[in-house]
Design a protein that fits this description.
heterodimer; A: alpha/beta; eight-stranded mixed β-sheet; 11 strands; B: mainly alpha; endoplasmic reticulum (chain B); GPI-anchor biosynthesis (chain B); transmembrane helix (chain B); GPI TRANSAMIDASE COMPONENT PIG-U (chain B)
Chain lengths: ~725, ~400
């Protein structure tokens, strides 16, 4: 009777299973093809970039003529001259005075003015900040009275609105010690603000935040936003009253000259923010024409809705004739290999067009180089996860925001030129505000996940994901094939064997659970990675520690940790039960588990922050796939294995995070300033800004590197 | 082993209390809640452990009676009860459920109570556990079948046919006329029969307990409304899927999308989905009631209207009980990777959708579907592993018989 069991006809597996088996059994070829295609697709991205278009119809940018008049400009000039007249007084008094003047001007326009006091506190280590909502509790922490700033907020209530929505304009301004550029940005904002206080079409409230930028531009905006979104029912004034008497005295003193205007003590709010524009005037002067720089990257590679960039770009280029720029990696602009690549693509594009005029993906080599430099910068800024300006604070509250940095052509001593510059800037902001004012819903129509290759070209998520997907696709395949090899699983390739071997293995073998040992090892290394990424928290507590010594302590402590871990758990005596036969496949199973862990990590990171995952995959995927015990390759002694040894060595060196950092630094910035402390500073900036990249490096990249090294040095 | 468990537990609760206290500034209620939950987990641990021992004893006994003891030598070092208890204790899902102050540890406790009572033959305890579990979360009601089977047949054994074959083989085998063999045959024959006495007891006790619970409930809800209203607010809430806020299940999305006039139809379909699987599984796995209970729990935690990770923690813990049977389970590594991946990806997707606003509901729902798929694979693979195990046992005993005969 039992015979019938074994003699059942061999079932033919379903096509999808057969396909999977085919792929797994040819994993080497698939690996090479996929990885090459992934890198190639990444290089092709500038070619595949699409032109931006305005997706939301309601925006209608530039459909109305600008209304800014000379009156607004002369008012703004008056404000500017009043403010700059104060500059030679002592700083504290000048700050108070200038704030008073600003308040007076604002309230003369009929705006509600309020002050927002905030306490600057240095960034703290929040390893899990990514998962939490912007926290409201931190405002209760103790603070020093000295590090206090005061934002000035003016709100215009919309005549046609119901007060449920608002548009935010932000100008960073150092009260008391501002330069001409900052005053210029303030006067542009004032121009727009005074216009907006008169217009009848306004449907959303306008909030003008003059951020006190003495502690950087990000901190005041962030503090204001946090207070804006967390209602405090006791009143902010009462909360702070007993702690900072000195400031309150100043506060009272400052209110005297403008006693006739009513400044509310409490926190003023308008509705939910539809969008925010941060604009400032750059100190440097452009040679050719007025230029507009757009900064959009917020924390963890989040971008504002593409429509916001589109309308700014559209209005700046087509209405105001500004030159719009986004950041580029300058060192890539004159790199030879990129140029050659661009020429190759250009030729290919021409050939393709001659074959079929419908195919127009060819772009000129110069465009290609430009596009890839911009793309590289976009990728880098997103991967870093550090916001490129105060707009990053808005994105944390789901508000789309960008920073506009306008650089005037020549220094603005010429009166007419100065007024024209004000007019241009004002009209640009007015146009953008008017477009956003038309919005019926939040920005949702266009892309959130994209990368810019030029101000008017972008690569959307659907395109750039292909490059990443191709790069990581071999990982599960190789993991599966290694696992199958190590377990001598029958994948249906050798059909004859299964029936003969089955009766022999009537023992409970726990064979399919053999990976548990490898999983344990991988898990321990990941725990080590987590511990390593928590170490800086303690190293920071050491007083008077220079970055160099900090990084040395960090590295040595991590190595010590790894050594201890290896001595405790990594010794081969812990698993005796593995027979000699299975010992051979041990490293293969370990590699398989490592690759699976890396796959999960990269997949996760690609959702959190795509750019980090892409760059990480470029480093990790080849290393993981190549890793094989050096001993085996040495023994083999063939050319191919020798080549693999060299590749492994190089990759093992490059993928070590500090090494990767220094290599990248030398490549892009030259080798003159290599300092051990730089790495520490870089990592510190990552965790200070709560970048997910930091967690990625600590919990995915570093453990994977350690495991790959372990595989390389495996004694098999 | 036990003191290791309790020590682990102590550290664990200590850690929980500390982290929570820091977070919530010494809230006393939280403190007690955490202690309460830790107590639940301790109880669950002990019960799982005891159940595991019972199951393993039964398994060994049946193997003994089948004369294939050599099968056991490889798994001697592992006690399935301990493994199950440790899996339950260190499962991140358990920790998450505990940190989140979810009530699922309580539900898990009563479910385990029912299974333990049934395994040990403690009828009142089994009835109490079952009634309370049904009262708390309704879905454990389907556990009545495994509980009855457990009480009727006793703990998990290889298929009954095997014992019969064995018995016939021994009976036909005339030259081995020692008493021991004869006794064993009688013993195994006795095991096959379904004993109705404990089942009747169970039914009696469960009706008693449920009347008791209902009376208590009616007394306590009297100031606020009737008992019927309580049913509507509790079971009705579970059955009609009123709350469609996102969870790790699949129903919320579906019912958010479906047209209103189809709603009741699909509600019936989805709930019948669980019920459809009860009978076939019960027929196929009637010789392994504990495993059947595990499968039921896994299926209901996949298809219930408001699933949580606490439910998964329960069935993953129970998975450890069947260590010997599942030793040759396929795709175990894939499943582990899938569980890790999904449980990490799901909060990130949720964050992307709810907090960052750059994703949408589909992102999160995709992880929910992946999770459901993983659970399906787990159920399918574990069932097939158990059936394969049975086949293997049959082969072994047949070869043994043949060897004995020849």
């Amino acid at each position: 009777m039992p015979k019938t069991e074994t003699e059942t006809p061999k079932m033919k597996p379903r096509p999808i299973v057969r396909l999977a088996i085919f792929l797994i059994s040819h994993s080497l070829l698939v690996c090479v093809v996929c990885c090459t295609a992934g890198v190639l697709a990444l290089l092709l991205l500038p070619l595949l970039a699409k032109n931006t278009y305005i997706s939301e119809n309601a925006l209608m940018p530039g459909s109305a003529s600008s209304m800014i008049s000379n009156r607004d400009i002369s008012e703004a000039n008056r404000l500017a001259s009043d403010l700059s007249g104060l500059n030679f007084e002592p700083q504290d008094a000048a700050a108070l005075e200038s704030r008073g003047i600003l308040t007076k001007y604002m309230s003369d326009l009929g705006a509600e003015v309020s002050y927002h006091k905030f306490h600057h506190k240095p960034n703290q280590f929040h390893p899990l900040h990514f998962f939490s909502s912007p926290d409201s509790t931190s405002s209760v922490d103790n603070f020093s009275c000295s590090a206090q700033g005061v934002n000035t907020v003016g709100i215009i209530r919309a005549p046609r609105g119901d007060g449920k929505e608002a548009i935010v304009l932000v100008t960073p301004y150092k009260f008391g010690k501002s330069g001409t550029a900052e005053t210029l940005s303030l006067s542009i904002a004032y121009t727009v603000f005074s216009l907006l206080s008169r217009v009848t079409w306004l449907a959303k409230d306008i909030i003008w935040l003059v951020a006190d930028s003495q502690y950087g531009e990000y901190a005041p905006v962030e503090a204001w936003l946090r207070d804006y979104h967390t209602p405090v029912f006791t009143g902010l004034g009462a909360l702070n009253a007993d702690t900072c008497i000195k400031i309150d005295d100043l506060y009272a003193l400052e209110q005297k000259p403008i006693a006739q205007t009513k400044i509310s003590d409490g926190f003023r709010r308008a509705g939910t923010m539809a969008a925010a524009l941060i604009f400032k005037v750059a100190d440097r002067n452009e040679l050719l024409e007025d230029t507009l720089n757009i900064y959009a990257e917020a924390s963890n590679g989040q971008m504002p809705n593409l429509d916001l960039i589109n309308i700014v770009n559209y209005l700046a280029v087509h209405r105001q004739g500004l030159r719009v720029k986004v950041e580029k990696v300058l060192s890539l602009l004159d790199s030879r290999w990129l140029e050659i690549l661009g020429e190759i693509f250009e030729v290919l594009g021409k050939v393709a067009r001659s074959l079929n005029p419908g195919w127009k993906f060819g772009i000129s080599a110069a465009d290609y180089v430009e596009g890839s430099a911009t793309l590289a910068s976009s990728l880098y800024n997103q991967a870093l996860g550090i916001p490129t300006g105060p707009h990053g604070a808005f994105r944390d509250f789901q508000v789309d925001a960008i920073t506009l940095e306008i650089s005037p052509k020549v220094s603005s001593h010429n009166k007419a030129r100065h007024n024209e510059f004000l007019l241009r800037g004002g009209r640009l902001v007015e146009g953008v505000v008017r477009s956003i004012n038309n919005l019926l819903e939040k920005f949702h129509q266009s892309f959130f996940l994209y990368m810019l290759t030029s101000p008017s070209k972008f690569v959307s998520v659907g395109v750039y994901m292909i490059a990443f997907a191709l790069l990581v696709a071999p990982l599960p395949l190789v993991a599966a094939s290694l696992y199958a090899d190590a377990n001598q699983l029958d994948l249906g390739v050798k059909n004859t064997k299964s029936t003969t071997t089955a009766p022999d293995e009537l023992d409970i073998t726990f064979r399919s659970w053999k990976w548990l040992y490898a999983a344990k090892e991988v898990f321990l290394v990941h725990v080590w990675g987590a511990a390593v990424s928590l170490l800086p928290y303690f190293i920071c507590q050491i007083p008077n520690c220079s970055p160099t010594s900090s990084s040395v302590i960090w590295v040595s402590l991590s190595m010590l940790g790894l050594l201890i871990l290896y001595l405790i758990a990594g010794s081969p005596s812990t698993h005796v039960s593995i027979s000699q036969h299975e010992e051979k496949g041990e490293w293969a199973i370990l590699k398989s588990v490592t690759i699976s862990a890396v796959f999960i990590g990269l997949l996760l990171m690609s959702v959190v922050n795509f750019a980090t995952a892409e760059i990480g995959a470029l480093l990790l995927v080849p290393m993981c796939l190549m890793a094989q015990p050096l001993k085996l390759d040495m023994k083999a002694g063939k050319f191919r294995s020798l080549f693999r040894v060299i590749c492994n060595m190089v990759l093992g060196f490059v993928a070590f995070p500090p090494a990767a950092y220094f290599v990248a630094k030398t490549l892009f910035e030259g080798s003159d300033s290599i300092n051990m402390g730089d790495f520490w500073n870089w990592m510190e900036s990552l965790w200070a800004w709560n970048s997910a990249t930091y967690i990625y490096i600590g919990m995915v990249h570093l453990p994977c590197w350690a495991l790959c090294l372990h595989i390389l040095l495996h004694s098999c | 082993m036990l003191d290791r468990c309790t020590m682990d537990l102590h550290c664990y609760s200590h850690f929980l209390v500390h982290s929570l206290l820091k977070e919530l500034k010494g809230n006393l209620i939280i403190f007690f809640a955490v202690w309460f939950l830790s107590l639940q987990i301790l109880l669950v641990l002990l019960l799982i452990r005891a159940t595991g021992h019972t199951l393993q004893m039964a398994y060994r006994q049946s193997l003994n009676s089948l004369d294939i003891v050599d099968l056991l030598k490889s798994s001697d070092s592992l006690s399935s009860g301990d493994v199950a208890a440790l899996v339950y204790l260190w499962n991140p899902f358990t920790i998450a459920a505990c940190v989140g102050l979810s009530t699922s540890p309580v539900e898990n406790l009563v479910v385990i109570l029912a299974l333990h009572g049934a395994c040990k033959g403690l009828v009142p305890l089994a009835a109490f556990g079952w009634v309370m579990a049904t009262h708390l979360s309704l879905y454990p009601a389907i556990l009545i079948i495994p509980v009855i089977l457990l009480l009727g047949y006793g703990p998990d054994t290889p298929p009954r046919k095997l014992f019969l074959q064995k018995g016939y083989g021994k009976n036909g085998d005339n030259h081995s006329s020692d008493n021991c063999g004869q006794q064993e045959t009688n013993h195994s024959k006795a095991e096959v029969t379904f004993s109705w006495r404990p089942v009747i007891h169970f039914l009696f006790w469960s009706s008693l307990w449920s009347t008791y619970v209902l009376v208590l409930c009616s007394i306590s809800v009297k100031p606020h409304g009737s008992l019927w209203e309580m049913f509507q607010r509790t079971y009705g809430f579970i059955l009609t899927v009123e709350d469609m806020s996102p969870n790790i299940g699949v129903l919320w999305y579906f019912f958010a999308e479906v047209f209103d006039f189809f709603r009741s139809f699909f509600m019936i379909v989805f709930h019948l989905n669980i019920l459809f699987m009860i009978l076939p599984l019960a027929i196929r796995l009637k010789h392994r009631p504990c495993f059947l209970a595990f499968i039921y729990i896994a299926i209901s935690s996949m298809l219930k209207s408001y699933p949580s990770v606490g439910d998964s923690a329960l069935y993953l813990g129970l998975l450890g009980l069947f260590l010997d049977e599942l030793a040759d389970m396929q795709f175990s590594f894939f499943l582990l990777c899938g569980y890790i991946g999904v449980s990490l990806l799901s909060p990130v997707m949720h964050n992307l959708w709810i907090w960052r606003g750059t994703g949408n509901a589909n992102f999160y729902y995709a992880t929910g579907m992946a999770y459901a798929c993983l659970q399906i694979i787990l159920v399918v693979e574990s069932v097939s592993a158990v059936l394969n195990h049975d086949r293997k046992l049959r082969k072994l005993s047949v070869t043994k018989l043949r060897d004995g005969n020849s």
